[in-house]
Amino acid sequence: MPGVLLGLAVLAFWLYSLFDVITTPDEEARNLPKILWVLIVVLVPLVGSVFWLLLGRPTRSRPFHLPGRSIMDKGEAPRGPDDDPDFLRDLDRRMRDDD
């Protein structure tokens, strides 16, 4: 039973590393071209995965970007509807109209 769990852990680690190599942009892979990293991780699963995490993976994490205009690109703090004066004014007007 412990052997099976260890095998599943190694398989999960290998799949994680392989997926990480494949989804990393070509220009962000360190020390070797991305295609060589894929071959190393596939051909030498455990050692290749460890080498990828230590030597090939980008040092900085990639930021998550939503398509379109980003509030963070403009240097503004994200605001909720209750912080927006236009929204509050419109809400107040709609509540008075309903009475």
TrEMBL record:
Membrane-crossing segments per the record: 35-55
Basic and acidic residues bias spans: 71-99
Keywords for this protein: Cell membrane, Membrane, Transmembrane, Transmembrane helix
Location relative to the cell: Cell membrane
Protein's UniProt keywords contain Ion transport: no
Protein topology in the membrane: Multi-pass membrane protein
InterPro entries attached to this UniProt entry: CLS_N
Residue ranges occupied by any Cardiolipin synthase N-terminal domain in the UniProt entry: 12-57
Region annotated Disordered, chain positions: 66-99
Name of the protein in its database record: PLDc N-terminal domain-containing protein
Organism: Nonomuraea mangrovi
